[in-house]
């Protein structure tokens, strides 16, 4: 049987994370460029989670996949600063929705200030590091953890939690 899973993004770090978890389980990954339905730079856990769920739903509603995954990055203001946050969702055609969040770290104050000025984290990271394509590679989390946890590793953890919840709900998978 040809088992497929759809992801609502062409971002390489996100695709690799899903591939890693689902390939091991014999799934073929299809990726689709979709609109997250939230702002380009989500500014709360709620908005970031919503983006993940909406991306997963588009994969099912518009591309005919039976199972869709959405991964979304954002930031969450807290008492002591602005934290990087990440959410994932796995949605099935019969209406099951699993959600999970990833590791959080506080962003340096200069980066937080850029975001409060309306810059997307992607551009703030590019200006700060003078490197292109960080969001598709190690990510801000990779830069600020000296490469110990890169964006793929962080998203893989989320995808494992989605996959696990799916297996718990449908034990035959
Ligand atoms: O193509 P898509 O899937 O949209 O991938 P993206 O890199 O834009 O990722 P998100 O939309 O999920 O993230 C929202 C914003 O936050 C940025 N972002 C989130 N996490 C990041 C990270 O670890 N490193 C760099 N930018 C990050 C991202 O580049 C966007 O500007
Ligand atoms: Mg984006």
TrEMBL record:
Enzyme class: hydrolase
Keywords for the protein's UniProt record, in alphabetical order: Hydrolase, Magnesium, Manganese, Metal-binding, Nucleotide metabolism, Nucleotide-binding
Cofactor: Mn(2+); Mg(2+)
Chemical reaction(s) catalysed: ITP + H2O = IDP + phosphate + H(+); XTP + H2O = XDP + phosphate + H(+)
InterPro entries with a match to the protein in the record: ITPase-like_fam, NTPase/PRRC1, YjjX_NTPase
EC number(s) stated in the UniProt entry for this protein: 3.6.1.73
Protein name as it appears in the record: inosine/xanthosine triphosphatase
Provenance organism: Alteribacillus iranensis
Lineage: Bacteria, Bacillati, Bacillota, Bacilli, Bacillales
């Amino acid at each position: 049987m040809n088992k497929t899973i759809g992801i609502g993004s062409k971002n390489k770090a996100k695709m690799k994370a899903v591939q890693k978890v689902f390939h091991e389980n014999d799934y073929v990954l299809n990726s689709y460029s979709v609109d997250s339905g939230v702002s380009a730079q989500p500014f709360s856990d709620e908005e970031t989670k919503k983006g993940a769920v909406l991306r997963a739903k588009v994969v099912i509603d518009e591309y005919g996949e039976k199972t869709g995954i959405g991964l979304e990055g954002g930031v969450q203001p807290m008492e002591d600063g602005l934290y990087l946050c990440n959410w994932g969702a796995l949605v099935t055609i019969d209406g099951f929705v699993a959600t999970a969040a990833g590791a959080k770290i506080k962003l340096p104050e200069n980066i937080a200030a850029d975001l409060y000025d309306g810059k997307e984290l992607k551009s703030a990271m590019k200006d700060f590091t003078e490197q292109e394509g960080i969001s598709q590679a190690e990510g801000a989390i990779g830069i600020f953890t000296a490469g110990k946890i890169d964006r793929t590793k962080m998203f893989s953890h989320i995808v494992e939690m989605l996959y696990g919840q799916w297996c718990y709900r449908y034990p035959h998978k």
